[in-house]
Amino acid sequence: MIFTKNEKYTSEFIENVYIADAVGLSSDMKKYFEEEMFLNVYLRHIDLVNEVCALAKMEIS
Question: Contact at 8 Å (CB) between 45 and 23?
Fold first, then answer.
């Protein structure tokens, strides 16, 4: 867990990391977060072009 401290925001421990992977990250990065920083890692593979197009369509309508 990581503790964040900033006077502008409520301080809290970070336990979860959500990663939107558009480039095919290696499992080493996920392993590092889990084993060295004791974080829960949720990795979602996305197609960035399709996601941006979907967001643009939502803004238009």
Answer: no
DSSP characters for 1-61? -EEE--TTS--EEE-EEEEEESS---HHHHHHHHHTS--EEEEEE--HHHHHHHHHHHHH-
- Max Cα–Cα distance, the chain, nearest Å: 44
Give Cα 52 distance to the centre of its chain.
17
What's the CA gap between 20 and 47, in Å, rounded? 9
pTM for this predicted structure: 0.63
The tens digit of pLDDT for each residue in 39-54 reads: 999 999 999 999 999 9
